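Hi R.,

As promised, here are both runs. First protein below:
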Amino acid sequence: MSKLKKSTLTISFLLAFLAGIALANFYKIPAELLTGGILVGIALVIFAKVNPADICRVNGILLAGLLLAGVSCGMLRFQFSIHETNPQMLDFYNDIEERVELRGIIAEEPDRRMDHAKYTLAISERDGKKVEGRVLVKTQLLPEYFYGDELRLRGKLQTPFESDEFSYRDYLDRFGIRSVMYYSQIEKISEVSVNPPLKRGVNYLFSQLFAFKKKFEEKINQVFPEPHASFEAGLLIGSRRGIPEKVLENFNATGLTHIIAISGYNIALVIALITALFGSFVPRRFQFPLAVVFVATFTLLVGANPAVVRAAVMGLLAFYALTHGRQYHAGLAIMFTAAVMIFVNPKILLHDVSFQLSFAAVAGLLFVSPLLEKYFEKIPNKFAIRESLLLTLSAQITAVPLIVFYFDRLSLVSPLANILVAPAIPLAMLLGFIAVAIGAIYLPAGILIGFLAYSLLSYILWIAEWGAKLPGASVEVGFFGIVFVVVYYLGLVGFLIWKRLSIIKHA
């Protein structure tokens, strides 16, 4: 028996760290014991390194030390992330009877829906006294406020609700939001654009970015009619504003919701488009830098929120692996990247569904798609048809358990629906973007080109409507709990390891 490889030891430590983060959500162990666990783990690793005993014993001690240190580090890091309120924190004043007056700046892109708007404010004052914290404000659509605007609010602070099915408190806590305010009085004090350029800084940059995104969405509405305009906006910039409830229900029933939620899947589609459009004449060594430019542009266009940035980073790592034949090393890199992201914000591991789905989608792209590739060789590869179909099914295989677990529904027509729409999605994105870009210069030309994208969008909407009408298209599966997820992924990982060993054996 040989010594364990460094990559194996690294993955073991990272998995133990993630396990520690997860366990700390349910069990609290004194920080002193966890610190002791880290020190004992380090001592075991050092002992194994200098111990001249047999390899089996050394490997066992080394692995035990890394696992103990990893779990202890994860649990300790989570404990440091637990919020404790005090009179200087905004949430200290939640659920009191009196109305409060707050002063703060809109710190995230406004979330505008069909009948209301939501604003996340970084608060600096409460009733004239300094406080820190973020509040989510739900209010009317008009008047509109924008990123960087300074507002004065008057209303009652509340703690986000919790129920047996869903914890809105945990959902918002991952963003650092621990207070909500509904339909308060709002007064605008100032806006970011009136400040001197040197004081505008990042706020001004993002205000311009979000303003551009808003104008881009308005141009989409000029080029396309509804519901196609809202659907195209969902594909290109992840906006769900204006999408009819019936269309969303059809997407849920057919397992197509992921195409209008910016995640690792959308990043994979951008990469597939790059491969299809430039792969035949751009040298392989230049394809990754080209992908970085396109993905970075796409990330900025949709708002560069943390979920999209995480999806972009992991998607680019997977693309680098696929273009350089280094799937195993990229798997380690993605695991390390995910661990770093979770170290920065431990709450995303269990409470950020978009992070989990992005990680699952990238894992499918990296490890499942190479095994399925040979079955798609006879499919024509024009306009990214083969890549989009392959990436869609690979992402579905790794993401389905999470979708079932969180939404308690299983779409029986999802595989068929995804196969039918997969070739059309990247083309609808590409033609839609070209139509909007040209429409910004000369609207009639944009509308003319947009007709091609309109046809593709109509086809996708029709597939969603047709699939949703099929008997038993979507079934309730609330009995599939965490055990189902664990068993599924253990079985999938075991199968992938077996396939890899078989390939190595017959190589």
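And here is the second one, sequence first, then its structure tokens:
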Amino acid sequence: MKAYVFLTTKPGTSEEVIRHLREVSKVKGVKSVDSVYGRFDAIVTVDAPGLEEIGELVYKVIEKIPNVTRSETALVLSRKDQ
């Protein structure tokens, strides 16, 4: 199951959060991390066997990162490679 996790960070800390996430990307499930302009500060692409694993990754890893103030997760409904 693939999902996008949109992050909002404390002002002036987005690059710090991005660096931390890129180090965490070695954690099973985090596929990419991108800094973006707009409503959110970063988008994290995750891939896991199921919803429970995505939830654990979001709540136990990503949301615990210092300076992350909010997250919003979008689950991918269908994929071309499946």
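A quick note on the second one: The chain is about 25% helix and 35% strand. Let me know what you think.

Best,
J.
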